[in-house]
Structure formats: C-alpha cells, structure tokens
Design a protein that fits this description.
There is one protein chain. The chain has eleven helices and no strands. It has one domain. It is an all-alpha fold. The longest helix has 27 residues, at 145-171. It starts with a helix and ends with a helix. α2 packs antiparallel against α11 and α5 packs antiparallel against α11 (183-203).
C-alpha cells in the first residue's frame, strides 16, 4: 500500500466521522448534559465501534451482506429500532428538570459511557459498507498485518478525537446554561434527530 492510499483512507474516513449521525448526536448530548469526562469515555466507545466495523469490512463482511441481504436487513432493523428507543427515552424525559447536584452524584460510570458509545456506533451497520467501499480501491491483496493495524488505529483516533471535540464544545458552561434553560426543547430536538436517523437506517 502506498502512502497516498493510506492518506486517502484517513481523509475519507475523517469526512465520514465528521458528518452528522447517531454518534455525533450522542456525543453532543452527553457533553452538554454530563460533561467532558463522560464524553471522552463515550467517544472511546464510538471509536471502538468504528474499529469493529472497519475490521469487519477488512475481512469481507460486505460480501456476506451481498450473499445474505436478509442479515443486513435484520441488523438495520435492530440498530434502527435501538436508536428510536433511545430517542423515545430522550423525548420522554425532556420535561424533567436537570438537577445538577443529583447529576454529579449519579454520574454515568466510565464503563457505562463507553458501552453507550459502542452500542450507538454498532447500531448502524452502514459503516461496514462504507469501509468496504473505501478499502476496495486502497487496500491491495497481501497487505501486511501492520498496515491493517495502522488503518484500525486511524479509524479509532478519527472517531474518538472528533467525538471528544464535539463533547468538549457542548460541555462549556455557556452551553450548559443554554441547555438548562431550554432542556425540554433541546432534548426533543436531539431525540427527534436520533429517531429520524434510526428510521432512515431501517428504510434505506
């Protein structure tokens, strides 16, 4: 693999990571409601989920989807339904006032935040198809294992650093002040966007 091909993978995946989706929405929601520390662990879980999908693409999961389209449909149905379920939780709790003292006492654990990020990323099977499209023209047969490891490291760093940045932007005190005053509206917006993405995953 050439250096230019490796750089192309980096740029293409970074563009995909930056584009709004369930992971970015969850990072923003976590940063604004639970702070940067929780957002970092959530972002690490999102990065781990990206590595799992990239690994699946490198080892031919897209071919399995082509041979058994019902499997892709089932994964899309389950993943989309999970996102809609999370969206319903946000919508249902939108009118519940945010108690900052209670939130600090019952903060999400690092493992819980990591798991939420991982499940959020894995709920959308489309990255496996995207990764396959990127890899098919850039990762030749016989590529050494260390190059595979470097590609997976790039995927993890892109996803983790970007979503950490999103959580950081939304964790500023000014963001929290706005969130507290407009919590019901903001939670409904986040929930609505997450539900739309879940439905889109199922329908397309």
């Amino acid at each position: 693999m050439t250096l230019s091909a490796f750089f192309a993978i980096y740029v293409l995946h970074l563009m995909a990571a930056v584009s709004p989706g369930p992971a970015v929405i969850m990072a923003a929601r976590t940063g604004i409601a639970e702070g940067l520390r929780t957002g970092i662990f959530l972002a690490a879980g999102i990065g781990a989920g990206g590595v799992i999908w990239a690994s699946a693409a490198l080892f031919g999961l897209a071919l399995v989807f082509e041979a058994a389209p019902a499997l892709l449909w089932a994964l899309k149905l389950l993943g989309g339904a999970y996102l809609v379920y999370m969206a319903w939780g946000m919508w249902r709790q939108a009118d519940t006032p945010l108690d900052l003292d209670a939130s600090s006492r019952s903060a999400r654990t690092p493992w819980s935040a990591f798991k939420l990020g991982l499940i959020t990323q894995l709920s959308n099977p489309k990255p496996a198809i995207l990764f396959s499209a990127i890899f098919v023209g850039t990762v030749p047969a016989g590529t050494p294992a260390w190059v595979f490891a470097a590609i997976l490291a790039v995927v993890f760093l892109n996803e983790t650093l970007w979503n950490t940045l999103v959580a950081r932007i939304f964790s500023f005190d000014r963001s929290k002040t706005v969130y507290i005053s407009l919590k019901s509206y903001i939670d409904r917006v986040f929930g609505g966007l997450l539900a739309l993405l879940g439905v889109k995953i199922i329908a397309t």
